[in-house]
Amino acid sequence: MVNVQSDHYSQSAWKAFCEARMDYLRILAETVEQSFLRRDTTHPTFCGCIDWHSSVHGAYALLTASRLTGQHRWAEIVDAALTPDCLEAELASLRNGELNHEIPYGFSWFLKLAIEREQGWGNRDLLPLAAEISTQLDQWIFSLPAGEVIYHLKQRNYGNLSWALLNLWNWSQWKADQVLIEKLLRFTRMWVVLLDETLPPSYDKVTNEFFAASLQRTRTIFTILPQEESWRWFESFCPEGLSMEPIPTAPTPHSAGLNFSRAWAFWTLFQSTQDVVFRDLYLNHIATHMEMPQYWRDDYRKHGHWVPQFGIYAIALGMEG
């Protein structure tokens, strides 16, 4: 794979990014804070950020930013929202089927939130909800017929199957659920890896949604499967290497999350390969998008209620990894 940037440039760019990323976290979290504190819906706990799933990843983002920056007020905001009565009401809504429309996207984010809540803060108050959500997500994934698997692997938004697999895998690892771990390994090998003939031949450049389906799929394969197995697939899928520039404008509201979600995959590839090309892609996508607040802060309805959360997650990956 050809490194299109010199190692010297990579090191200096990485140093500059590391010096800026704490400020990035703070200004992103300030936007998330304003969104999370709103009451946009009637959900008992997750009522800000326009919709339930954005409020869930708002809580995740505030907890993560608080932990990484030491600004405890963001964790205190989440603590104040997660009262026992409200969480019990959320669980009742879940069991009544009122959140079924959040499968798979919102449920996947909730598992990420529950892990952050327990791992980062030692609080297990989300576990009853997370246990129910993980069971429902498990049932949804493993009951998909073949045609639906292919359909959802191609999705670039809420229905994306790779995002669900990735987060259910992380949950299975966190809870040491060996049965679920084995099921996800088999499913990934049987479906996610072996369906190349039905999927785009390489990395898609579609920019009208918040996920790049092929990058999400790549991230899932590299996370779930052993490195040698993942690398063998990657060299077959992308024999000429991977080069991708950040999108300079967001042609649709959803595309405003694409630079950040691409960065998630680039970091996973860098962690797995230690190739600085992927680290440069990661930081370039984040830094470029941070310079465009019109696509993550200035319009609450289009971008401000959800895009900053994507950015906090992207930055957290590099700081934790």
What does this structure look like?
This protein has 321 residues and is mainly α. It has a domain at 1-36 and 243-321. It contains 15 helices and no strands. The model is unreliable at 1-6 (pLDDT under 50).
Task: Offer a few descriptive terms.
321 residues, 66% helix, mainly alpha, 0% strand, 15 helices
Q: Tell me the strand percentage band.
A: under 5%
Mean pLDDT over all positions:
93
Uncertain runs = 1-6
Provide the structure class. mainly alpha
Distance between the termini: 23 Å
Q: Mind summarizing the main beta sheet?
A: none
Shape summary: globular
**Rg on CA atoms, Å:** 19 Å
Order of helices and strands: HHHHHHHHHHHHHHH
The helical percent reads 55-70%
* Tally of DSSP helical segments: 15
Compute the number of strand runs.
Answer: 0
Write the layout of secondary structure elements.
Elements: H1 7-36, H2 52-69, H3 73-81, H4 84-95, H5 105-121, H6 127-142, H7 146-154, H8 161-174, H9 178-192, H10 213-224, H11 227-237, H12 258-273, H13 276-290, H14 300-304, H15 307-320
Concise account of the structure shown:
The protein is built from 15 helices and no strands.
